[in-house]
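Batch manifest, entry 17 of 40.
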Amino acid sequence: PCRLFHGCNRLLTSQIISYYDSINQCKKELPEYFNFASNVLDEWSQLEKDGRRPANPAFWWVNDEGEEVKWSFEELGFLSRKAANILSEACGLQRGDRVIAVLPRVPEWWLLNIACMRTGIVFIPGTSQLTAKDILYRLQASKAKCIITNDTLAPAVESVMRDCQFLKSKLIVAKGSRDGWLNLKEL
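Output type: structure tokens
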């Protein structure tokens, strides 16, 4: 029996283990090229749509003020596909390109992480405590083509831009827009 957690059925450890056991016993196909977004997230979304799995939150985030974001597997899949399109189209990134995300752990951090998995873009996380010098070093060493940050850290990025020859696009996670930056929420 599933124990209720804030009104939602939780996936039991035994259910996860049985899934992996079925792979080990060759009852399920192992994909030649594994992609978490399509092989897990999209699969579980389809199971929910078909009624073969109870609806559970795929993502549940709560901040210090009690603000809550809760996405189903279907919503997380849909939003990560939109974010993947933004990275590919608006930012011009391709499989193998590197993106640095210097963000606190806001919902967009996880969304962009999954979008990168979906597209084959290399996601390089950075703590929001980085200084301009730290950001410059990471941009130069990684040869990242895109940086994603918030309005608090954007000035630090702008102060080192002239020394970042590989950087092609800047994406900001903010409510308002900023000159020279693409806005994730607006896109």
